[in-house]
């Protein structure tokens, strides 16, 4: 009997693919435990993990949390219209295509050379309805028709920092324009103590959406370490009980904050405007060691 998917080990002869892209030095490193799986790093910072044999497998903690949101956007298996701001190795677009066949998706990734590398080395399923646009995330979002998207996912980093123009209320106005009235916005936000950026992003989303939730490691929420938090926003009620259950049962359990407790977490931070916006803080070097 052959080995199961989770225990098989690939040949040590498979080598990493290293190539200069617009954003720095890209590396596609083979996963020793999964035959056709790879981790994408940019300048040494892990960006994405892809298993070509099992695109529904999400290795990174924050991507699993975004996966939970995707799973709950609409009834299981129903096709959705999704916009992904930030492409990486197209991990979440692959996940949507695998779990919700016939979904129509747009990926906006500024780094054209990275897009070429990923398309060549980690090709998308030719049957997946995924369009990839090489453009700035906000400019690409501006080309999405009004009310088209069931889901907008933001996972944009340049030099391990989210650009300033993707942190403002004006940016969220564009997100809302592209979303259906029932649509959901989900963003990967990286921050560390004193969490000023995260607090400001929650306040910014609260100024534009009626319902919010935040999924994060409790240590991150307590300001004990730098890490990722997933902000979820919509104008309709969010599936909080199921999000909470899934986050708690993850291999790296997360906590879901919402309602008054989440607003209190902002500590009085105000919404961010284009005029005052700054990029998210750079992670400390120890994060990637």
Describe the structure in your own words:
The protein is of the alpha/beta class and 289 residues long. Helix 2 links the parallel strand 5 and strand 6. It has a single domain, classed as Vaccinia Virus protein VP39 (Rossmann fold), CATH 3.40.50. Helix 1 packs parallel to helix 2 and helix 1 packs antiparallel against helix 8.
The name CATH uses for the topology is Rossmann fold
Write the H/E string, N to C.
EEEEHEHEHEHEHEHEHEHEH
Question: What is the second-level CATH architecture?
Answer: 3-Layer(aba) Sandwich
- Count of all domains: 1
The counted number of beta strands is: 12
Low-confidence parts lasting 5 or more residues at pLDDT below 50?
A: 1-7
Strand order of the largest sheet: 7-6-5-8-9-11-10-12
CATH homologous superfamily identity: Vaccinia Virus protein VP39
* SSE class: alpha/beta
Radius of gyration: 18 Å
Span between N and C termini?
A: 38 Å
Give the CATH level 1 class.
Answer: Alpha Beta
As a percent range, the share of helical residues equals 25-40%
Q: Outline, from the CA principal axes?
A: globular
Sheet of most strands:
8 strands, mixed
């Amino acid at each position: 009997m052959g080995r199961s998917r989770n225990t098989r080990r690939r040949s040590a002869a498979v080598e990493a693919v290293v190539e200069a892209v617009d954003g720095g030095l890209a590396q596609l490193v083979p996963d020793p435990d999964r035959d056709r799986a790879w981790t994408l790093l940019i300048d040494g910072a892990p960006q994405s993990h892809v298993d070509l044999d099992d695109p529904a497998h999400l290795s990174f903690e924050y991507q699993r949390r975004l996966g939970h949101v995707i799973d709950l956007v609409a009834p299981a298996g129903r096709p959705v219209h999704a916009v992904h701001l930030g492409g990486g190795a197209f991990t979440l677009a692959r996940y949507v295509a695998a779990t919700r066949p016939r979904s129509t998706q747009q990926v906006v990734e500024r780094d054209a050379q990275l897009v070429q590398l990923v398309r060549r080395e980690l090709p998308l399923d030719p049957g997946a309805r995924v369009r990839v646009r090489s453009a700035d995330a906000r400019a690409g979002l501006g080309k999405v028709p009004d009310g088209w998207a069931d889901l907008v996912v933001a996972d944009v980093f340049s030099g391990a920092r989210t650009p300033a123009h993707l942190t403002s209320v004006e940016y969220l106005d564009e997100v809302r324009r592209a979303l259906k009235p029932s649509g959901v916005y989900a963003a990967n936000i990286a921050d560390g103590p004193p969490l000023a950026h995260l607090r400001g992003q929650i306040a910014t989303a609260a100024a534009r959406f009626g319902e919010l939730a935040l999924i994060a490691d409790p240590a991150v929420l307590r300001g004990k370490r730098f890490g990722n938090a997933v902000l979820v926003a919509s104008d309709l009620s969010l599936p909080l009980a199921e999000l909470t259950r899934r986050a708690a049962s993850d291999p790296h359990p997360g906590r879901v904050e919402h309602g008054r407790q989440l607003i209190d977490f902002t500590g009085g931070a105000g919404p961010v405007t284009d005029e005052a916006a700054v990029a998210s803080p750079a992670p400390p070097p120890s994060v990637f060691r």
